[in-house]
Design goal:
Blueprint: H1 7-14, H2 16-20, H3 27-38, H4 43-70, H5 79-96, H6 105-128, H7 130-133, H8 137-166, H9 180-204, H10 219-227, H11 230-259, H12 267-288, H13 294-308, H14 323-359, H15 364-393, H16 404-429, H17 436-454
Helix pairs in contact: 1-8, 1-9, 3-11, 4-6, 4-15, 5-6, 5-9, 6-15, 8-12, 8-14, 11-14, 11-15, 11-16, 12-14, 13-14, 13-16, 14-15, 14-17, 15-16
Length: 455
């Protein structure tokens, strides 16, 4: 059995997660909703920008995945790419979080392009690093849990900022709404916390054991890698369904809070409740994964989300008094979503081991990049579809009143449509074959083959 990583190394590895929390959900949706309500960018323009930028960005991710696999330096292959992502992240924050009232969809597209490039350059090597730090099934889940915890803690802290800064005992902000001043504060936070976390990881965490052979990426090679890897096919299928669902939800949730439910002033607190629920669930899911395969935990969590999401329709229009029930309800949905945050990064390491057994090559970074490519493209597709549907049904976030038809179009797109995709993801995941026993067999066979080659 491999030795467990020291807590100092785990904490340093997870440190970039605090800054990265500003680059992942719910913040991209918050930013898009802010641009839709506070700048000259239209919902259709935002949707087009999101779709084009994220689809283009996915192609870049493949190169990042291969490059981080192939890079060999004294400090390892992953760290230089994280440092590059850190610098791009500072540039992205200086643009995207500081728009003017006249900023157009083109300005948004430029800023969001830098934003997602920073995410890919940092996130792909960071998560691919897990499989080089350990090959142990349980230890990978432990590392993933630390990173998930850091991301959630960072997200909760940043979501609390509007309430904290506008409180009477601080008084640095006039309102708890996410306005132009608050967006600027988020920008400064990104420019401070992301570099700090990356530098800690680079200085403290050991580089790990790199792959012996890295295969140069090609479309034919990527197709072959997927074709011979049935577990990876199932993982990607589940990701596609899951990210379309979350893309639809995050496109419309903040618009619905502000323009339909009358909870615009309470968005930050609702999200804090949701994040707190996820933080509480990290050790629960981590403990459960010792006894139940992580793909089954994710599967049943997804199915439960599909069942509960439509109950959003029970909440009434323009009723700020329902803030507490709504916060509890969103917290339950978010708790169920914790499995989807934790387990895919460890599962990519498992399917990468299976790929190594089948092909002899080590393509962890490439497989994670392909997974992130699908993640981004399908989330963008769901996100764009949500904004396009708003435009199609005539729901205008800037309008004082919307028709019954447009309102129901928005609500059904927010609730029922995502549930169909969550259900599909759960069914796919129940067919995923790699559990702890089968993964141990895979690792033993790889090790035996490597020893035979050495002889």
């Amino acid at each position: 059995m491999q030795p467990r990583l020291r807590n100092l190394h785990l904490a340093a590895y997870a440190a970039p997660g605090v800054g990265l929390s500003l680059f992942i959900s719910p913040f991209p949706a918050i930013i898009a909703a802010f641009y839709a309500s506070h700048t000259a960018a239209t919902t259709a323009g935002i949707a087009t920008a999101l779709l084009l930028v994220r689809v283009t960005d996915t192609l870049i991710d493949i190169g990042i995945g291969y490059a981080s696999d192939a890079t060999r330096t004294r400090i390892g292959g992953r760290k230089p790419w994280m440092l590059l992502g850190m610098m791009i992240g500072v540039a992205a924050a200086s643009v995207l979080f500081f728009p003017s009232a006249s900023s157009s969809a083109i300005y948004f597209a430029f800023g969001i392009a830098l934003y997602y490039l920073a995410l890919g350059s940092t996130d792909i090597p960071l998560r691919s690093w897990i499989s080089e730090l350990t090959s142990d099934y349980a230890e990978r889940a432990r590392i993933a849990a630390w990173l998930t915890f850091a991301i959630l803690m960072g997200g909760m802290g940043f979501l609390l900022l509007p309430e904290g800064l506008s409180s009477s005992w601080v008084g640095l902000a006039e309102t708890s709404a996410i306005d132009r001043d608050m967006m600027a504060i988020y920008g400064w936070c990104a420019m401070i916390f992301l570099p700090t976390g990356v530098i800690l990881a680079v200085l403290i965490v050991p580089p790990g054991k790199p792959a012996a052979r890295v295969e140069r990426p090609s479309w034919a090679g990527m197709v072959a890698a997927v074709r011979i890897n049935k577990p990876y096919q199932l993982l990607i299928g589940a990701e596609i369904s899951t990210q379309i669902a979350w893309g639809l939800i995050y496109a419309l949730l903040f618009v619905a809070f502000e323009t339909y439910f009358g909870l615009g002033d309470h968005v930050a607190l609702i999200l804090v409740a949701a994040t707190a629920a996820q933080i509480l669930c990290v050790p629960i899911y981590s403990s459960l994964s010792k006894h139940i395969s992580r793909h089954r935990l994710w599967a049943w969590s997804s199915i439960m989300t599909a069942i509960f999401a439509p109950f959003t329709l029970l909440f009434q229009k323009d009723t700020p008094e329902q803030f507490i029930p709504m916060a509890i309800f969103i917290a339950i949905l978010s708790a169920l979503g914790t499995a989807q945050m934790m387990f895919p990064m460890a599962m990519v390491g498992d399917v990468a081991d299976y790929d190594t057994l089948k092909s002899g090559a080590r393509r962890t970074g490439l497989l994670y990049a392909m997974r992130l490519m699908v993640f981004k493209a399908t989330f963008a597709a769901g996100n764009a579809a949500g904004f396009y549907i708003l435009s199609l049904v005539g729901y205008d976030p800037k309008a004082a009143v919307n028709s019954s038809f447009s309102t129901w179009g928005m609500l059904l797109t927010l609730t029922v449509l995502p549930s169909i995709f969550f259900l599909m993801a759960g069914v796919i995941l129940l067919r995923f074959p790699i559990d702890a026993r089968r993964h141990a067999i895979i690792v033993r066979r790889i090790s035996s083959r490597a020893k035979g080659i050495q002889r």
